[in-house]
Amino acid sequence: MNAEIADFIDHLSKERRLSEHTCLAYRTDLEQFETFCQERDRDLSEVDKADVRAFLGSLHTQGFSRTSIARKLSSLRTFLSYLCVDGRLPKNAALQVSPPKPEKRLPEHLDVDEVRRTMEAPDEKSFVGVRDRAILELFYSSGLRLRELAGLRHDRVDVAAGTVRVTGKGAKDRIVPVGRSAKAALDAYLLCRNRLQLDRTDGSLFVTRQGKPLSPSGVQSRVTKYLGEATGRKMGPHALRHSFATHLLDEGADLNAVKEMLGHASLSTTQIYTHVSVERLKEAYRQAHPRA
What we know:
Helix content: 55-70%
CATH architecture of the largest domain: Orthogonal Bundle
Structural class: mainly alpha
CATH superfamily of the largest domain: Intergrase catalytic core
Number of strands: 3
Oligomer: single chain
Number of helices: 13
Number of domains: 2
Mean pLDDT: 90
Radius of gyration: 22 Å
């Protein structure tokens, strides 16, 4: 199965032009299935729907969430469909298996006061603090994903115009606005960075004190630290993206406009944030209405 997986990943990368991160996720899912088949001495040509169901059951036993299991089934379906089209398999057994029902969990977000405390958490007397303030502000101001922000190039940000061009899922570019607070934080960071005369040959926007690109894991650890200090909860950068969308919709922003800024392919993905706003209204009603 290893050769088939390698061919499939090559197809995703070169023909479908999926990102390296997405290809890695596919590879991880499929290698898990490969290991599962090897443990049961099952050849790829022998795989049927019972095998696929057993694989999903093993994932559940290992503690994977319904969302993760559904994603792995989707990866397997896409892989087997590729092999069918290529003439290597007669049928796609994974299409006969339904994914688990998704867990109804609303996105975790911050209230406005928690956002303020988070933005003020970095010590802006140092280069790292100034940089981290700019990172936090940009996450909340523009609703970026972790890898979108970590992968930003210096020439993709137009502070004067208040816009940033990001490359999202599927290698699709979009332009999103940058608010006043984020512009001020970016100006301060770029000034501080210029003073240190850091090497800019790489072109990355956010760098270490040595001028090396700040990795996604580096960004995540810094943001998680500040969010913990400000809220007392364990949250990652995506909480700022959730807060960006929730607060926009709370103030009456158009759902389609929020969809475009988030880079969602489907409006249904964005609509989860309308449920967050409705739940907050319900909670306010329950607390304030005498006959709630």
